[in-house]
UniProtKB/TrEMBL annotation:
Catalytic activity annotation: (1S,2R)-1-C-(indol-3-yl)glycerol 3-phosphate + L-serine = D-glyceraldehyde 3-phosphate + L-tryptophan + H2O
Gene3D superfamilies: 3.40.50.1100
Matches recorded under InterPro entries: Trp_synth_b-like, Trp_synth_b_CS, Trp_synth_beta, Trp_synth_beta/beta-like, TrpB-like_PALP, TrpB-like_PALP_sf
Pathway participation: Amino-acid biosynthesis; L-tryptophan biosynthesis; L-tryptophan from chorismate: step 5/5
Entry cofactors: pyridoxal 5'-phosphate
Signal peptide: none
Record organism: Thioalkalicoccus limnaeus
Taxonomic lineage from the root: Bacteria, Pseudomonadati, Pseudomonadota, Gammaproteobacteria, Chromatiales
Main function: The beta subunit is responsible for the synthesis of L-tryptophan from indole and L-serine.
Name of the protein this chain belongs to: Tryptophan synthase beta chain
Length: 453
C-alpha cells in the first residue's frame, strides 16, 4: 500500500464518460409526472425550460454517457482533482482507519458544482440559448453557473435564498464578478416571489421558493432556459467524474473503500462520489457502505416521507418521487445553506428506500467542531456543507479506534469555506446555536402533498 499523501491523475486520465446509475438500478425509478395530468412527462413537456441534450440525459438509461470535448477542455483547469490520504487526521484521532478525501475545492468556484454547471452551459449554448435562470442556496451553485456563463457567453440570472444572500456577501460578489445578476429570494420580480412576500413579508427564503422564481422567469422567455444545481438525474450524472477519478486514485493507493461518505442537500456531491462505487456493487462487485449526511434542522432523508412532491414552493415543477419534508417547508436559517432543501434527488431517494444508502443527520455545532478539527490537522477549512461529511468520517474513524478495526473511509470534501469565515467566526464566538425545525410546519407541509394514484 502506498505511503503517499496525495494521489494525482494526469489530465489524460480524466474520465471520458459520465456514469449513469439508472442502467444498474435493481428496480427502475418511478416516472416523473406532469403536475396537471399526473401522467409521465414527455421530452416536449420539459423543453419549456431545458435544452434537448439535457432532457435526453435526464431520461437516459445508458450506463456511460460521453463528456463532450469542449466540456473536458474546461474541466482540465481543475480536473482531475486530488485525492488525499488524511494521515495527520488519522494520527490526531489515533485510529487504525485509513481516511481519504476527494478535494473538490480546487475548482475556480471552490466546490464540486462546476462539474455540472459547465456541461449545462455548453448544451444551452449549443442550442442558441441566450439567458439562463437558476437558484442558489449558499452560493456554490450560483458561483459555478456564473463562471460557466462567462466562459460560454450566456447571461446568468440567479435567485439566491435571502438568508444566504445576507450571510454570504462575498459569495454574491463572486457571482457578480463573473458577470451574473444575483437577486435575493423571495423577490418582487416574480409572481411566486410576490405571493410569498404578501403572506410573509419577513420571509428569509428557501431553495423551493428560489426555484419557483427561476423557473417562472425561464418559462416567460423563449431565449431563456433554466438550470438546476442538484436533485435531477442529469446533474448527478455530471458529478460522477468525482467518483470515477477516485476509483483510479484509490487503485494507485492500493486501497478500496469500506464506506463512502458525502453530505446531502439535494444530493449531487454525494452521488458524485458514491454512485460509481455503488454501481460497481450493483453489478456484482465489492459492497460498500454509502453514508448520506444531512443537517438535523432539515432532515429530508431521515425524517421525510417517500412520496411524489413538487420540487418548488409555487408548484411550477413536475412531480417526482422522493424523500420530502413537503414543498411548503421552510428550513431554519442554519449556515449550511446548500443543504436547506425540502426534497432529495429521486435516484438517491430510490436507493435509500431500497436500503443501499444509510442516511444520517447532525446538528450544526458538532459539524463546525469537526470542520475545525479537520482544518487543524489537514490545513483545509471546509465549507459548512462539507463539514457534515467530515463529521461522519471522524465518527466512523473513532468507531474503528474503539473496535480496533482498520476500515477504509472515503469522503467527498465538496468545497472550501473561504467565503464562509463569518460562520466560523460566529461559531468560535459562541454565537451559533443548534437550530430545530418546526415539526408542526413539517406536518402541515406533508399534509399538502399532491394526491397521486
Amino acid at each position: 500500500m502506498s505511503d503517499s499523501v496525495k494521489f494525482l491523475l494526469d489530465e489524460r486520465e480524466m474520465p471520458k464518460t459520465w456514469y449513469n446509475i439508472n442502467a444498474d438500478l435493481p428496480e427502475p425509478l418511478q416516472p416523473v409526472l406532469h403536475p396537471a395530468t399526473k401522467q409521465p412527462v414527455t421530452p416536449d413537456d420539459l423543453a419549456v425550460i431545458f435544452p434537448r441534450a439535457v432532457i435526453e440525459q435526464e431520461m437516459s438509461q445508458e450506463r456511460d454517457i460521453e463528456i463532450p470535448g469542449p466540456v473536458r477542455d474546461v474541466y482540465r483547469q481543475w480536473r482531475p482533482s486530488p485525492l488525499y490520504r488524511a494521515r495527520r487526521l488519522e494520527r490526531a484521532l489515533d485510529t487504525p482507519a485509513r481516511i481519504y478525501y476527494k478535494y473538490e475545492g480546487v475548482s475556480p468556484a471552490g466546490s464540486h458544482k462546476p462539474n455540472s454547471a459547465i456541461p449545462q452551459a455548453f448544451y444551452n449554448k449549443q442550442e442558441g440559448v441566450k439567458r439562463i435562470t437558476t437558484e442558489t442556496g449558499a452560493g456554490q451553485w450560483g458561483s459555478s453557473l456564473a463562471l460557466a456563463g462567462a466562459l460560454f457567453g450566456i447571461e446568468i440570472e440567479i435567485y439566491m435564498v435571502k438568508v444566504s444572500y445576507e450571510q454570504k456577501p462575498y459569495r454574491r460578489a463572486l457571482m457578480e464578478t463573473f458577470g451574473a445578476r444575483c437577486i435575493a429570494s423571495p423577490s418582487d420580480l416574480t409572481e411566486s416571489g410576490r405571493a410569498i412576500l404578501a403572506e410573509r413579508p419577513d420571509s428569509r427564503g428557501s431553495l423551493g421558493i428560489a426555484i419557483s422564481e427561476a423557473v417562472e422567469m425561464a418559462a416567460k422567455r423563449d431565449d431563456t432556459c433554466y438550470a438546476l444545481g442538484s436533485v435531477l438525474n442529469h446533474v448527478l450524472l455530471h458529478q460522477t467524474v468525482i467518483g470515477l477519478e477516485a476509483m483510479k486514485q484509490l487503485e494507485m493507493a492500493g486501497d478500496y473503500p469500506d464506506m463512502v461518505i458525502g453530505c446531502t442537500g439535494g444530493g449531487s456531491n454525494f452521488a458524485g462520489i458514491a454512485f460509481p462505487f455503488l454501481g460497481e456493487q450493483l453489478r456484482g462487485g465489492r459492497a460498500v457502505r454509502c453514508i448520506a449526511v444531512e443537517p438535523s434542522a432539515c432532515p429530508t432523508l431521515t425524517k421525510g416521507r417517500f412520496a411524489y412532491d413538487f420540487g418548488d414552493t409555487a408548484h411550477l415543477t413536475p412531480l417526482v418521487k422522493m424523500y420530502t419534508l413537503g414543498s411548503g417547508f421552510m428550513p431554519p436559517g442554519f449556515h449550511a445553506g446548500g443543504l436547506r432543501y425540502h426534497g432529495m434527488a429521486p435516484q438517491i431517494s430510490h436507493l435509500a428506500a431500497l436500503g443501499y444508502i444509510e442516511p444520517r443527520s447532525y446538528n450544526q455545532l458538532e459539524c463546525f467542531a469537526a470542520g475545525i478539527q479537520f482544518a487543524k490537522a489537514e490545513g483545509i477549512v471546509p465549507a459548512p456543507e462539507a463539514n457534515h461529511a467530515v463529521r461522519a468520517a471522524i465518527q466512523e474513524a473513532e468507531r474503528c479506534r474503539e473496535s480496533g478495526t482498520a476500515k477504509t473511509i472515503l469522503f467527498n470534501l465538496s468545497g472550501h469555506g473561504h467565503f464562509d469565515m463569518q460562520a466560523y467566526t460566529d461559531y468560535m464566538a459562541g454565537k451559533l446555536k443548534d437550530l430545530v425545525y418546526d415539526e408542526s410546519e413539517v406536518a402541515m407541509a406533508l399534509a399538502g402533498l399532491p394526491s397521486v394514484n
